[in-house]
Amino acid sequence: MDLTGRRVWVVGASSGIGAALARELCLRGAQVAVSARRADALKEVAGEWMTAVPCDITDADEVRQAAGVVAAELGGIDIAVLSAGYWKQMGDEFDVESFDQHLAVNLSGMANCLGELIPRMKKQRAGMIVGISSVAGYRGLPGSEAYGATKAAQINLLEALRVRLRPDGIDVLTVCPGFVETEMTSDNTFPMPFIVSAEQAGRAIADGIERQSARIVFPWQMSLLMRISRLVPDRLWALALTPRS
Ligand SMILES: NC(=O)c1ccc[n+]([C@@H]2O[C@H](COP(=O)([O-])OP(=O)(O)OC[C@H]3O[C@@H](n4cnc5c(N)ncnc54)[C@H](OP(=O)(O)O)[C@@H]3O)[C@@H](O)[C@H]2O)c1
Question: Can you tell me where the transmembrane regions are (predicted)?
């Protein structure tokens, strides 16, 4: 797919992967609108080249309004990238409040965006939805109970939609990054193997969009590792990841 002139809405673009991808898409000739809650950070990312439309995706009304503004400013939405996300490591105690916050942003927030985008794209009989999940959704990881559960759910949700929306001319891409250097990972104290920069992530996702890959996984080392991890039997997985005392 040639990105020149494509009208793209990147949600979750005030920092990190979303911001880097928005810049990359601009460089490749797309017309880009960016959304997130922090209006100042968003403005800085947008500069003179993008349209900034602040919005909290946990609020369905705000998402509806923002989608309307973006569609009006760009003249329609060809591609929507859903990158907004929340991560907090689960401590020793199971934290229900934190679990709910992951659900609200990563899952209900994504659903709010989909609820606006799908009818619009169905009307156009064309469109592309790019959901940013994570390799953390591939297997259960201690500390990632809430985050991983929502990322696994996103993978499943996006896969189901890819089938359902095909007859409407709407394509659905699932992005599963490994570790990326962003605000989200800046406080992590555990090792983050094969970590890449947000700019590298932005380029990998833009390449995947151009190729129209159903699943975009990077870096390749993490992709390979997680593919192998899915073959490990459940008991062996638990044994391997149990901390030694
Ligand atoms: N970094 C990694 O290692 C990594 C790995 C795999 C997957 N991912 C996924 O990649 C995506 C982007 O994360 P990132 O690493 O780029 O982190 P980030 O820099 O913290 O970016 C997260 C973005 O989501 C926005 N956001 C959060 N809550 C929101 C809400 N309620 N409404 C609207 N926007 C909201 C944030 O903006 P505001 O705070 O301004 O709202 C920010 O723009 C996430 O879905 C994350 O799960 C990240």
Answer: none
